[in-house]
């Protein structure tokens, strides 16, 4: 692997660790597991979704997403409903408590960005976001068989 590739992998590993740590602390401060908070924020951003789309968006198996959603339903943050188009399917939506948690999370993430990136100007933040999205898209485009050999 070229040196630039190793440098990129190392930077991604550091980013992943930093993201897990900060998101974990933030989720804990909100009284919610980190994985559950991801689902709450996904539903807040995209609205009502079937379980399969939640699993696909989070890049997890549907059984994993189902367990996480069940915990959110039990805690009153998410509601399961019968899909109007396909009565066999279930859709997921936030409850009022789930929307409140999402609003609190957005506020907390805003404070995190304001603190952690206080000396960055807006154009640098936007450029970094664009680069991170490009890296994520490039990784997501790698065929699965290339990842497992």
Quick synopsis:
This protein is mainly alpha-helical and 149 residues long. It is built from seven helices and three strands. The two termini are 16 Å apart.
Strand content: 5-15%
Which CATH architecture? Orthogonal Bundle
Find the CATH topology: Arc Repressor Mutant, subunit A
Report the end-to-end length measured between terminal Cα atoms.
Answer: 16 Å
Elements, N to C (H/E): HHEHHEEHHH
The total of helices stands at 7
Stretches where pLDDT falls below 50 for ≥5 residues? none
Main sheet overview: 3 strands, antiparallel
Look at the structure and give the CATH class.
Answer: Mainly Alpha
Give the strand tally.
3
Radius of gyration: 18 Å
The helix/strand class is mainly alpha
Description:
- One of its GO terms (biological process) is response to stress.
- Keywords: DNA-binding, Transcription, Transcription regulation.
- InterPro entries: HTH_MarR-typ, MarR/SlyA-like, Tscrpt_reg_MarR-type_CS, WH-like_DNA-bd_sf, WH_DNA-bd_sf.
- Helix content is 70%, strand content 8%.
- It has helices at residues 3-29, 34-46, 51-58, 62-74, 96-116, 122-140, 144-147; strands at residues 49-50, 78-82, 90-94.
- Helix 2 crosses helix 5 (96-116) and helix 3 packs across helix 4.
- The chain has 149 residues and is mainly alpha-helical.
- The two termini are 16 Å apart.
- The model has no long low-confidence stretch (mean pLDDT 92).
């Amino acid at each position: 692997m070229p040196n630039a590739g190793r440098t990129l992998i190392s930077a991604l590993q550091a980013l992943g660790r930093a993201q897990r740590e900060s998101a974990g602390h933030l989720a804990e401060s909100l009284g919610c597991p980190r994985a559950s908070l991801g689902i709450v924020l996904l539903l807040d951003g995209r609205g009502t979704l079937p379980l399969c789309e939640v699993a696909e968006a989070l890049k997890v198996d549907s059984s994993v997403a189902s367990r996480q959603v069940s915990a959110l339903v039990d805690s009153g943050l998410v509601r399961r409903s019968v899909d109007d188009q396909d009565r066999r399917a279930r859709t997921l939506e936030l409850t009022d408590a789930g929307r409140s948690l999402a609003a609190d999370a957005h506020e907390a993430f805003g404070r995190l960005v304001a603190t952690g990136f206080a000396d960055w100007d807006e154009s640098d933040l936007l450029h970094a976001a664009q680069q991170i999205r490009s890296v994520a898209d490039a990784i997501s485009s790698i065929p699965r068989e290339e990842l497992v050999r």
